[in-house]
Design goal:
Number of helices: 2
Distance between the termini: 160 Å
CATH topology of the largest domain: Immunoglobulin-like
Order of helices and strands: HEEEEEEEEEEEEEEEEEEEEEEEEEH
Largest sheet: 7 strands, mixed
Number of strands: 25
Oligomer: single chain
Shape: rod-shaped
Length: 369
Amino acid sequence: MKKSILRKLFVVTLCLATVLSMGVTAFAADNPATGASITIEKNLKVSNPDLTSVDGPGLTMNYAIAPVAPSADNGGLTITDADDHTGTVHQGPADGVTLSASSISWPIGTAVNASAAGADNVKSIAANVDLSKFSAPGIYRYQLTETVGTDTSATGAAGETRYIDVYIENDTTGLKVAGVVMHDGATAEGKPSNKATFGNETFETVNITLQKTVSGNMADKNNQFPFSATTSDNGRYHYAKKAAAPTAIEADKKAEGTETTTLAHTEMYYISGLSHEAAVAYEETNNTADVYQTSITGGTASAASAVAPNGTKAMASTDVDNAGAVVFNNALESVSPTGVVLRFGAPLFLLAAGAALVVLNRKSRRSEM
């Protein structure tokens, strides 16, 4: 009996210990460690329907921090916590907080992650508190400004303003940094944190295809028609591949400029990972001995026109947003045997009529004699 009671007490004690340990863990997670710095993250979300990575957009965000006088517009003159303790906010001393770097960049020539839903590309800088610049306990405010440095490929980036409050307290040997809080100025209340974020920037990229079709009973559907594709995208790389869409394979990376390929009936050439600032122009050469009627749909479309042997048909440079699938169709219809008879019917009739007149004229002369 006593053993049974002891077992039950042991189980209850073990359960209480487990619950308490879980409670301590949860409390620690809800109150992150604080210190004399805060990590400031910036995320670039990159989307593409098919690719897992694209070339960087050429985006740079600049950052600067400086002391600022507290006001109602940047978080208030005082701060009251959950325990109704109120503190006065002061303008921070010069160089009390400095940044580990003045910019964050996703440059051209460096790949960034992409997905259909938008992949994260997070970078960060640190705001570090120099305790030696503070002479008394208090709450000190700084303004952190984000501006667009460069935006080569139109991410639509826009800078923001944040505020950093540094909490300085007495310590047994002097002063200490009790915490750092970054906020948007709407309210300065909040828990000290070792991480804060600016708003995300987005970079959407697109893919286009060049397709070849050949129609008509006398057209050669196996002929490989030469094409050139001229791409411009503010110096960015793109991915290009024939027959199958690329998946950001390094071997398929192309610099902007002119590249060549050949396409037969139903074959495709894929150009992927282009920014909304990109443009592409195409030109096809008729490398056969026949005269094709060539038309273009998609992009800068054009009606059918005759393209002689060694002649060309071009699609002017067009914004990729209006390109989608660009199709070059070469048509060569069969020549009807009936058409040949009809075509030469009139001359043959005239020739026969002339011959008949000659015969009649000769008979007439004979009868006169």
